[in-house]
Amino acid sequence: MNEKTTNEMAPPIEMNGVDVAAMQDPACILFKNIHWTVAQGEFWVVGAPQHSGKSDFLMTTAGLIPPAAGSYKFYGNETRIFDESRLADRLRMGFVFEHAELFHYLTVAENVALPLRYHSNLKAEEAAEVIDPLLEITHLKPIADVKPANLPGNWHKRAGLARALSLQPDILLADNPLGALDARHSCWWLQFLDSLSKGHKWLREKPLTIMVTTDDFRPWRGHGRKFALLKDNSFVVIGSWSEVVSAKEPLVRELLATPVEENIEP
Questions:
Q1: Does one domain contain both 180 and 251?
Q2: Is residue 244, in this structure, part of any structural domain at all?
């Protein structure tokens, strides 16, 4: 039986009563009793302040950290962590780290091709040929032979995205993808993620299921279709953008950079 066999009619992600632990300290529970279902093709934006556990939450969603409690299902299959026996399922997810985590002794093209070489056992020349169109559509072709140390951080994150897409995943998770980007690169990311969510030619025109984290909701207006919040050890589903802007929750107002009325003693 093919390891990749899953219940394709089931939602890609189902969490029921999940607790998320800190990666650096598994005894520390950051978020408790999460109930969350992600349907195929949805585009979720999960907001929280800086240094509040967004990365730990997303890595648990990616199956890189096991849930501390509760039930986590990936396409209907109970999953704690994607070990070697679940590799085929793990490769259906692309993950973009907040700081890209590129190998600085490799060129941009070699970083992007690494998953193909490792998981598809391709030679360098074969992998280079496969990723050439990907480098083209992500505008990395002109810097393909440059090492990350010689590039601005904007391009690091874009190379991390291309690497996450190299195996043509069904799901993309991106940890604070707009963080520290300038306006031009942020605009490119938003437009490109939109094209992926609608069905990009690189992904055989199949709509990509996307989950991103952010500490600023404002850029995601008109892009994210469902919004949620991480606060007070809880995961709170907000809903559509109209529900975000009408929410009275102070943290939502903070992530919209909207002044919150405070009682200040004279």
A1: yes
A2: yes
Beta bridge partners of 237: 228
Alpha helix ranges (H) inside the chain: 54-61, 87-90, 108-119, 124-137, 153-165, 183-198, 241-246, 250-255
For residue 224, is it within any domain? yes
Residues near 149 by beta carbon (within 8 Å), at least 6 away in sequence? 104
pTM: 0.93
Quick count: other Cβ atoms within 10 Å of Cβ 115?
19
Give the domain extent around 156.
104-168
Banded pLDDT at 5 (limits 50, 70, 90): low
Instruction: Collect all residues with Cβ–Cβ distance below 8 Å to 194 and sequence separation of at least 6.
Output: 223
From CA 169, how far away is CA 244, in angstroms rounded? 29
Same domain, 68 and 198: yes
